[in-house]
Specification:
Leucine Aminopeptidase, subunit E, domain 1; 14 helices; Aminopeptidase; elongated; alpha/beta
């Protein structure tokens, strides 16, 4: 596949870049380690277990009771009655403390700072079997992600600068490697959030590709970008079909991470995992037009591509030992004069013909081509992420991703990684008898089934483009990728969901005899 640079995206040849760099425009707290509370810290945390409220350091239980403080995970109480304010932070029952509780506590602490410039988070004495590094890393993730804000399009940035937080540990040197990995993950999530929060008219496929190219190159990855001509020449009919209604040419970004000492398979070849991410930079629905309410947040329809790209760029800093490749097809789905029509047929990369009966079921069309590319050479596993179906939100709500796949072992690995990362997933089936719903009268298959079980038939459609024998998992992140309200470390808007699960999955690949961090 030829390598190109991202060409100008607008019809008149100019590049409609936003005034700031794509993937920028946010602010987050900074986090460091220390063995004691810094002298300049204006506020300090006080850990509180729900079942030990009589033993909260320096705070009488009567004070907690009057404030209605029960020690729930993430509950806070600000006590500012002297030179240094205190934030009592709930951690839930002592026996259940783990990385998820500490992550949520870190996020709640950040939100409670209310303009305090310097702060310290003191780890609790009881860590439930976690090391100080694991605990400090979880707190740091929560502090950074909970303090995130996207200000790129505000005429006046908020006057209060993000806080600088010191996490207080007993042995800073021993805890530092875990903290650095956590901060790398949080930085990757921030990058994904920034991309998703960009308006669809600013983050065109070319601009997205440029932003990822810059970051991936700086991280030491190999970058290959296919432009419109290269996409057509490669037989990527699904991407071409979806892009027909747009004035912005498509892109496909292919990233490769080569570890210094890769894991090898039985044949002596590097073990390779592939990631695929859906990158619809704005989804109008095409000629199967969405209603106005359903279109307002459709700048987020590239959250899968954002998560995959961000995770790839964090692999070197995370010390991942397995070789990883990613494919992210990028286009918007618009209603231009030559937009694909319901009933049109295209040919995908693997030669299968697809009748498109609903142009708003477009994500699976671009993913089909990318899955073909990902599985044309031997892969130990393929994982794709996509804001694919509203049906998944009907089934699981907006905080849980659905996962479907053809390999029980890989599904279990993804579930375990998601638990470590604190991201919720739930396995859904791929019923073989539902495949008949995709039979077409004029082509090899059609792109939709009946109105029921839409997530399952979407998964069955994608499975048609995964090479036989390749372990594969699909993550439908339509709900948790973009939130209507704050929830723990997740802000309103883009969440960066999936980045931490991918990093946990890949960091643990081939590592024997080690238990994952407690969730």
């Amino acid at each position: 596949m030829p390598r190109t640079s991202a060409a100008p995206s607008s019809p008149d040849g100019s590049d409609r870049r936003p005034s700031h760099a794509a993937g920028a425009g946010s602010s987050v707290p900074t986090v460091t380690l220390g063995r004691s509370v810094p002298a300049g810290a204006a506020v300090v945390s006080v850990p509180a277990f729900a079942d030990r409220l009589t033993k909260v350091d320096g705070v009488r239980k009567a004070v907690l009771d009057r404030a209605g403080f029960a020690g729930r995970v993430g509950q806070t109480l600000v006590l500012d009655d002297g030179d240094r304010a205190r934030v009592v932070v709930g951690l839930g029952p002592a026996a259940q403390v783990g990385t998820t509780a500490l992550r949520k506590a870190g996020a709640a602490f950040t939100k409670a700072l209310r303009g305090y410039r310097r702060a310290a988070f003191v780890l609790p004495a009881e860590l439930g079997g976690l090391t100080e590094g694991q605990a400090a890393g979880a707190v740091a993730e929560g502090v950074v992600l909970g303090g995130y804000r996207f200000d790129a399009y505000r005429s006046q940035a908020p006057s209060k600068a993000p806080a600088a937080v010191t996490v207080v540990v007993g042995d800073a040197r021993a805890a530092r490697p875990a903290l650095e990995r956590a901060l790398a993950a949080a930085d990757a999530v921030t990058f994904a959030r920034n991309l998703v929060n960009e308006p669809g008219g600013a983050l065109t496929p070319a601009v997205f590709a440029e932003a990822v190219t810059e970051r991936a190159s700086a991280a030491g990855l190999t970058v290959e970008v296919l432009d419109a001509d290269a996409i057509a020449a490669a037989g990527l009919g699904g991407i071409v079909a979806v892009n027909k209604g747009s004035v912005h040419p498509p892109r496909l970004v292919h990233l490769t991470y080569e570890p210094a000492e890769p894991l090898l398979d039985d044949d002596g070849d590097p073990v390779t995992v592939a990631l695929v991410g859906k990158g619809i930079t704005f989804d109008s629905g095409g000629l199967s037009l969405k209603p106005a309410d359903g279109m307002m947040d459709m700048k987020c329809d590239m959250a899968g591509a954002a998560a995959v790209s961000a995770a790839m760029c964090a692999l070197p800093a995370s010390g991942v030992q397995v070789r990883v490749e990613s494919w992210t097809p990028l286009t918007d789905n618009m209603t231009g004069g030559d937009a694909q029509r319901p009933g049109d047929v295209f040919t995908a990369r693997n030669g299968r013909t697809v009748e498109v009966l609903n142009t708003d079921a477009e994500g699976r069309l671009v993913l089909a081509d990318a899955l073909c590319l990902a599985t044309e050479s031997k892969k130990a596993a393929v994982v794709d992420l996509a804001t694919l179906t509203g049906a998944c939100m009907v089934a699981l709500g907006d905080k849980i991703a659905g996962i479907l796949g053809n390999d029980d072992g890989l599904l279990g690995d993804v579930e375990e990684a998601a638990e470590v990362a604190g991201e919720r997933v739930w396995q859904l089936p791929l019923p073989a008898d539902y495949r008949a719903q995709l039979d077409s009268n004029v082509a090899d298959l059609k792109n939709i089934g009946t109105r029921f079980g839409g997530t399952l038939t979407a998964g069955l459609f994608l499975q048609e483009f995964v090479a036989d024998g390749t372990p594969w998992v699909h993550m439908d992140i339509a709900g948790p990728a973009f939130q209507a309200a704050e929830d723990g470390e997740h802000p309103k808007g883009a969440t960066g969901f999936g980045v931490r699960t991918l990093l946990a999955l890949l960091s643990g690949w081939g590592v024997d005899g080690e238990e994952p961090d407690e969730a």
